[in-house]
Amino acid sequence: MSNAEHPAVQGLLEGKKVLITGAARGLGLEFARSVVQGGGSVVLADILAEQAEAAAAQLREQGYEAHAVALDLNDPASIEHCAAFASKALGGLDGLVNNAGMTHSGGKSLEQIDIDVWDEVMRINVRGTWLMSRACLPALRASGQGSIVNLASDTPMWGAPNLLAYVASKGAIMSMTRSMARELGAGGITVNAVAPGLTLVEATEYVPRERHDLYENQRALQRAQLPDDVSGAVAFLLSGLSRFVTGQVLAVNGGFVMH
């Protein structure tokens, strides 16, 4: 777990009840940490159930309210259970961060991607985001100040090669975000997306050094991107400061893509 402190978020999320998917490690865990440091409570959902529980336990040891639940985005029943668990454990739900996702097609050309891999990426990244959002809608509507933050990527913004299934899925997330915002605005729910650049987390360990160099050399801020570089944007979109911000895609990539 990152030991990064987030002094800028202190009090920003006071009383907020947030469910974060893919929160056992990496970006999702960093988001969970920023939520509780901001005064909120959190449910960490992940297919890595034991790792999620260990992370939640560590947050509880630090004095924060944190729970963990197993989540398999392949399974609609698991998604429904996760949403119900989060609402019950937290006593409601003010925010959902759809962070969980997968790549699997990295390094392969469009001619080399296996059809089953393509389908799985779409099922987890796109269908999973839709079903998770749908399952949480009753609790988010009841909140009166619900926020959904979808994790996109800057890869669709510049057309990253040899990553087509993932890029297509994240492009879909951007489009879904806008459509969801239109549909859910009448219920007071904001829907936005954060599009990080290549970030140093476990999920990107397979990325070749050349791709890291491409990002670092062509960013306006020329350094590696870390998980806590993204958490402030997510915290803002979950907070009361962004209640009139919806349907937006915020690129957080050090100026590699300026969207």
TrEMBL record:
<comment type="similarity">
    <text>Belongs to the short-chain dehydrogenases/reductases (SDR) family.</text>
</comment>
<dbReference type="InterPro" id="IPR036291">
    <property type="entry name" value="NAD(P)-bd_dom_sf"/>
</dbReference>
<dbReference type="InterPro" id="IPR002347">
    <property type="entry name" value="SDR_fam"/>
</dbReference>
<feature type="domain" description="Ketoreductase">
    <location>
        <begin position="16"/>
        <end position="197"/>
    </location>
</feature>
<dbReference type="InterPro" id="IPR020904">
    <property type="entry name" value="Sc_DH/Rdtase_CS"/>
</dbReference>
<dbReference type="Pfam" id="PF13561">
    <property type="entry name" value="adh_short_C2"/>
</dbReference>
<dbReference type="GO" id="GO:0016491">
    <property type="term" value="F:oxidoreductase activity"/>
</dbReference>
<keyword id="KW-0560">Oxidoreductase</keyword>
<dbReference type="InterPro" id="IPR057326">
    <property type="entry name" value="KR_dom"/>
</dbReference>
<protein>
    <submittedName>
        <fullName>NAD(P)-dependent dehydrogenase (Short-subunit alcohol dehydrogenase family)</fullName>
    </submittedName>
</protein>
<keyword id="KW-0520">NAD</keyword>
